[in-house]
Design a protein that fits this description.
- It is built from 12 helices and 16 strands.
- The chain is α/β, with parallel strands linked by helices.
- The chain folds into 2 domains: 246 residues, Dihydropteroate synthase-like (TIM Barrel), CATH 3.20.20; 93 residues, 2-Layer Sandwich (Sulfite Reductase Hemoprotein, domain 1).
- Strands 8-7-6-5-4-3-10-9 form an 8-stranded parallel sheet. Strands 11, 12, 13, 14, 15 and 16 form a 6-stranded mixed sheet that branches. The chain has a two-stranded antiparallel ribbon with strand order 1-2.
- The chain binds iron/sulfur cluster.
- Iron/sulfur cluster binds next to helix 11.
Length: 363
């Protein structure tokens, strides 16, 4: 951990499938399917796609018993991918998916019902040795708390909601759980996690809920998740976007990479462009990003439009391009290559160089 970070908060470790969460383990990345769970084929395809894009853990909504039956088939087609079931209101759904091999159950405090039902859920989690996630969310707070605080959902209210559930788990002698306490407001989210971080020993799943469409959702998530991670808070993350969930996974890795916590795929260092650019940097970078989506090996590529900032970036990149008239200079591992790249062939040439360096030749 570098000098910009607080020491990571010490937490217990739980396992969702084979993925450890908490302790000193790497920050894991989660996402959630948005297919209809009844549609087994589509859901399995989306789970596989998310997994290929790096998701460590994938959550599925199980709104009813039909979906629970579909989950059985989904499970048998995604054996090695850690799956979390999102269950609300009906504890029997949770019992069913546990029987069918789910790796974790997510519940909202208050909506499973009375203590007898929660006990059955906890007994089930103990029996199958799976963790539960207490997932508090500003949009689905218990009515009692909404009424008590006049519908004002502050960090303290979210914290109170979590602690009610935690105290029930304590009474039931159950500590194999993780917690999330998300608001759609970034500052409330941060404050709520700060409160919970010093009150329990369990790992924390962090994120900003209902963060919005891609542009604003990325911004809120980067600030919320990024700030918390720098405070040493957070063991697993989910970026919540109103978009294809694959984007959530990519953004999550971008956040982790920006904080030097985990590396996956290409880190593009590109200039904003100006009148000095010697080739079309924006199109070149966008095309390359699309073509090289499958590359998962971490690699730094600088693509800079002119010599003003190009040389400095190229010298510390794995691959660097410095824009020049008609031909641009190419650097590999900081060393200038004898051959220049023709400006009208930068995309193809760079794709070849990157694939060569990362052993990712397409068939
Ligand atoms: S690196 Fe060159 S082309 Fe890019 S923004 Fe700076 S001055 Fe402009």
């Amino acid at each position: 951990m570098n000098k910009f970070f607080n020491k990571r908060r010490k937490s217990n470790c739980i396992y969702v499938g084979n993925i450890p969460i908490g302790g000193d383990y790497p920050i894991s990345v989660q996402s959630m399917t948005n297919t209809n769970t009844i549609d087994v084929e589509q859901t399995v395809n989306q789970i596989n796609t998310l997994s290929l894009n790096g998701a460590d853990i994938i959550r599925i909504s199980i709104p009813n018993m039909d979906a629970a039956e579909s989950f059985k088939k989904i499970r048998s087609n995604t054996k090695n991918i850690p799956l979390v079931a999102d269950v609300h209101f009906d504890y029997r759904i949770a019992l069913k998916v546990a029987e069918y091999g789910v790796d974790c159950i997510r519940i909202n405090p208050g909506n499973i019902g009375n203590i007898r039902r929660i006990k059955m859920l906890v007994d089930c989690a103990k029996y199958y040795n799976i963790p539960i996630r207490i997932g508090v969310n500003s949009g689905s707070l218990e009515k009692e708390l909404r009424d008590k605080y006049n519908k004002i959902v502050s960090a303290k209210v979210l914290f109170e909601s979590v602690m009610r559930q935690v105290s029930i788990f304590d009474k039931l002698n159950f500590n194999y759980f993780k917690v999330s306490v998300k608001s759609s407001d970034v500052l409330t989210t941060i404050q709520a996690y700060k409160l919970i971080a010093k009150s329990i020993d369990q790992p924390l799943h962090i994120g900003v809920t209902e963060a919005g469409t891609t542009r604003i959702g990325i911004t809120k998530s980067a600030i919320g998740i990024g700030s918390l991670l720098m405070m040493g808070i957070g063991d697993t993350i989910r970026v919540s976007l109103t978009a294809n969930p694959v984007e959530e996974v990519k953004v999550a890795f971008d956040i982790l990479r920006s904080l030097h916590l985990r590396y996956r795929g290409i880190n593009f260092i590109t200039c904003p462009t100006c009148a000095r650019q010697e080739f079309d940097v924006i199109n070149t970078t966008n095309n390359l990003e699309k073509k090289l989506q499958d590359v998962i090996k971490p690699i730094n590529i600088s693509i800079i439009g002119c010599v003003v900032n190009g040389l400095g970036e190229a010298l510390r990149s794995d691959i660097g391009v410095v824009g020049g008239k008609e031909n641009s200079s190419l650097y590999i591992n900081g060393i200038r290559q004898a051959n220049k790249i023709k400006n009208n062939n930068i995309v193809n040439y760079l794709e070849f160089i990157v694939r060569n360096k990362t052993n990712t030749y397409t068939k």
